[in-house]
Design brief:
Elements (H helix, E strand, L loop, with lengths): L1 H17 L36 H12 L10 H12 L6 H9 L5 H11 L1 H14 L18 H12 L4 H14 L4 H6 L10 H6 L5 H23 L18 H10 L3 E9 L3 H15 L6 E2 L10 E19 L16 E7 L8 E6 L12 E19 L1 E4 L2 E3 L1 E2 L1 E6 L2 E2 L6 E3 L29 H23 L4 E8 L5 E4 L7 E5 L22 H12 L4 H16 L20 H13 L4 H9 L12 H6 L12 E2 L2 H12 L15 E3 L5 E3 L3 H4 L20 H5 L18 H9 L1 H17 L3 H13 L5 H14 L1 H10 L1 H4 E2 L1
Antiparallel strand pairs: 1-13, 2-9, 3-6, 3-10, 3-12, 4-5, 4-6, 7-8, 10-11, 14-15, 16-19, 17-18
């Protein structure tokens, strides 16, 4: 799988570059607009200064005037509040809010509206969604074994909270790359490192391939490649990953720089991590005492934990010499920390004997590999062996016992081998494919004569017997105390380990290392130090150094990158229209002076997102009408110069949220585990059924769509039809299409049918007659009253088809689906 992904990545890279006229003459040249220092330009003088509300307008209007164009008139107030509301909080304004704004004659009415929306907790939900697109956030691993990530959501909530708190951008960057190192003890900063692990992860290759194999190393390389793309594309808008197999064909990024960045992430593994435990001290004391008790009450032998049930495991006993056999007895375990007999007993297994320690030649006495073997519970499983002679006895599993999801093992409390009326396995040496490293579990406990709490050879000594009973009672009491403690809070992120050695690879081939490299940053930015600390035992210093490199005031990429993204989400197109690629293969900025002004303004205003939003949305540029103009369209058909506002189609989440808001069913509960718009079936490859109407129309799932549990392998069909992006792919710019499938989904999807009924119920409570209900529906859906022509057309429709049918029509109207 890893090899396939690597090949696919290369194919995509070459496909992209093939669209270019060819490699540039000197790709190593640093004469690139994005690498030059940010210099605040002079605000240009324009012919119509009265049209300028703030400096942004001067930069935009100057470009327009060069082409003989000017701004479009300002949009009306009803349009502006709808535009601002969807833009800043992702929800439609209520009729009351529209009325209040339209009637407010104060000079600062617009500015007050902007400030109110920016102060809303809904703001973080809207703008956090933009960030989650860029970092390809999802709640499952992706790939073939698309396992759940039950603790991914704290990172999503961290992002939303960071936007609501207006966290300075440099702090935001540092927390996500090295919050655990730079801000120790800070919970938000720790959770922020979930950024590094937010993308897909190949469970099968990472967990099931044997350590030390080439394929396992390929999987790790693919994983680190995702971390590099995640970091450099997001924060610096650099396509460093194009230098994985050779020097970058277009930009001054040598192959060595790619591997220096890989070294930054070479000491990380994706894991669930605890970020808060209110009962940590109590938990530690209880588990310590339980471990002490467990050593006096051995449970038996257990294999190491396996991630899948079909992992092969074996355990064997050396009887010392070849002896005649009568019977082999398998005693299932009942560890002290479990109330279930039969713990660890494999579902499918064989029992074989041999005089050869390697079992190159052996005889199978029991073959239970075709169907699942019933769990024996407290019953001893007896295997007839009369007439057989052997020195070694081996039990091999082909299907393991399920301890929990992604946790499988084989265990026995005791194994006895009868020969001539005696248990010749007593205290015999034991070997195994692997063993669990835990106090109560050891190979020596498999033949010690004791079976956890059953104690097959229970001692006659009263003191020993009394100790065992008391130990079991104490352990049980401790277990109850432990169960009563609140669970520790976890998030999915990265766990530091000693950094692995990284070498430049010939053509990206893990079997062809060229030279070892240390951690560092791309050398294309001359103004900032690119060599990082390389102590393999302190990998955190590497990430901290990269975070400092990105946020260094002399780095020209970081501020340009983020203000370009902010502009894109407000105006519909970024100034540099490839927001994650500031290289020669990307699109150069249409207004480079404006981009540098915004970058400098952002830095000087404390890197405040909200101040940047306020500057942009209060500009005359933003407040223009979206109406077309034939003269301007003939000169600038794509509206790159912004002679009008770009009309936008609601994004998938905005549409779903707007439907719920208008129907009166939107649950505004913030944060926590994501709601599930599917029926889930756990399996080797989990099943996510998005066609389950019960899940779709469960009121508990009528929260804002940003809080849904996002599955990578199986997209939600309703949201997918509305161009909701694939969470396996970094999405700096969403696709926005208009298709017949969208119309069908909006008219017939079970969600839309149910919400149309809810909308109708709401209207029925607001007015008693069809005319009044229709007027209320228009006000809620569009923020206006219906026209006389609309009333004449739709009133008979309501009377004939019913109120829910009218609600479906309103939900399907272009006026609902688009924002002017």
């Amino acid at each position: 799988m890893a090899a396939l992904l690597a090949a696919t990545a290369l194919t995509l890279h070459f496909s992209a570059t093939s669209l270019h006229a060819g490699p540039v003459k000197d790709p190593g040249s640093k004469d690139l607009w994005s690498l030059k220092p940010v210099v605040r330009p002079e605000v240009p003088k324009v012919k119509e200064p009265k049209l300028v509300r703030n400096p942004i307008d001067a930069f935009v209007l100057a470009k327009l005037e060069e082409k003989g164009l000017t701004f479009s008139p300002e949009a009306d107030r009803a349009t502006l509040i709808r535009r601002l509301s969807f833009d800043l909080i992702g929800l439609p304004p209520s009729p009351e809010e529209v009325d209040a704004f339209v009637k407010d004659k104060s000079k600062d009415a617009y500015e007050k509206l902007v400030d109110r929306l920016l102060a809303s907790p809904r703001y973080g939900e809207r703008w956090g969604r933009h960030w989650l697109d860029v970092v390809h956030y999802g709640d499952t691993h992706g790939f073939d074994r698309d396992k759940r990530r039950p603790y991914e959501w704290p990172y999503r909530d961290y992002v939303i909270k960071s936007f609501n708190d207006d966290k300075p951008y440099s702090r935001f960057v540092k927390e996500q790359l090295a919050g655990d190192v730079l801000f120790p003890g800070n919970t938000d900063a720790l959770i922020g490192t979930g950024f590094i692990a937010a993308g897909p992860w190949d469970f099968e290759s990472q967990m099931e391939l044997r350590e030390g194999t080439v394929e396992r190393e390929k999987a790790r390389v693919v994983d680190r490649n995702d971390m590099i793309i995640q970091t450099m594309s997001t924060f610096a808008s650099l396509t460093v990953h194009c230098a994985r197999c050779h020097d970058h064909k277009f930009d001054p990024i040598p192959q060595k720089d790619y591997y220096r960045l890989e070294a930054v992430f070479s000491g990380l593994e994706r894991r669930n991590r605890v970020y808060a435990d209110a009962a940590a001290d109590q938990r530690a004391a209880i588990t310590k005492r339980q471990a002490e008790i467990a050593t006096t009450l051995p449970a038996g032998w257990s294999s190491a934990i396996a991630p899948t049930e079909d992992t092969s495991k074996w355990v064997q006993i050396d009887l010392g010499k070849s002896v005649p056999l009568t019977e082999i007895r398998l005693v299932a375990a009942r560890p002290i920390d479990s109330d279930k007999d039969g713990y660890g007993f494999p579902l499918r297994f064989t029992v074989a004997v041999s005089d050869d320690e390697t079992f190159a030649k052996s005889e199978t006495l029991a073959d239970n590999t075709l169907v699942d073997y019933p769990n024996p519970g407290a019953t001893t499983v007896k295997i007839a062996a009369t007439g057989k002679t052997a020195r070694y006895v081996r039990i091999a599993s082909s299907l393991l016992y399920k301890k929990s999801n992604d946790s499988y093992l084989m265990a026995f409390g005791e194994i006895e081998v009868e020969s001539q009326g005696q248990n010749v396995a007593a205290d015999a040496p034991v070997a195994a494919s692997d063993s669990l490293d835990a106090p109560a579990w050891s190979p020596k406990f498999l033949t010690d004569g004791f079976d956890g709490r059953l104690w097959l050879r229970f001692p006659d000594d009263f003191a020993v017997r009394e100790h065992a009973v008391k130990a079991v009672d104490e352990y049980g009491a401790l277990a109850k105390q432990l169960a009563a403690l609140p669970e520790p809070k976890q998030f999915y992120g990265v766990e530091p380990i000693p950094a692995r050695k990284i070498s430049v690879l010939k053509r990206g081939d893990v079997t062809k290392p060229i030279e070892e490299v240390g951690p560092g940053a791309p050398s294309c930015v001359d103004a900032v130090k690119v060599e990082f600390p390389s102590d393999p035992k302190d990998e955190g210093k590497r990430r901290a150094a990269l975070a400092e490199w990105l946020t260094d005031p002399k780095n020209p990429l970081t501020h340009r990158s983020i203000v370009n993204r902010i502009w894109e989400y407000h105006l519909g197109r970024a100034i540099a229209a490839t927001p994650s690629d500031f290289g020669r293969n990307g699109i150069a900025p249409s207004n480079p002076e404006l981009l540098d002004f915004l970058a400098d303004e952002f830095a000087k205003n404390g890197e405040s997102f909200k101040k940047m939003h306020r500057l942009i949305v209060t500009s005359a540029t933003y407040r223009q009408s979206s109406a077309t103009n034939e003269k301007a369209a003939a000169i600038d058909a794509d509206n790159i110069l912004l002679w009008r506002m770009n009309r936008s189609r609601l994004e998938a989440e905005q549409l779903r949220d707007a439907v719920l808001a208008v129907s009166g069913k939107l649950d505004m509960t913030m944060g926590g585990p994501g709601f599930e718009l599917f029926h889930f079936t756990d399996d080797k490859s989990p099943v996510y059924d998005h066609l389950d109407v019960t899940a779709i129309n469960n009121p508990a799932n009528w929260r804002r769509t940003v809080y849904r549990f996002a599955v990578r392998s199986v997209p939600n069909p309703f949201l997918e039809s509305l161009d909701c992006p694939d969470p396996s792919i970094n999405t700096p710019v969403r696709t926005s299409t208009i298709t017949a499938l969208q119309s069908l989904a909006l008219m017939n999807d079970p969600f839309m049918l149910k919400q149309s009924e809810c909308f109708a119920e709401r209207l029925g409570k607001m007015a008693k007659d069809p005319a009044g209900q229709m007027k209320a529906g228009f006000r809620l859906a569009f923020g206006r009253a219906p026209t006389a022509a609309e009333e004449k057309t739709l009133l008979p429709f309501v009377q004939q088809q019913g109120l829910p049918s009218l609600c479906r029509v309103l939900f399907n109207a272009n006026e609902f689906f688009f924002v002017d």
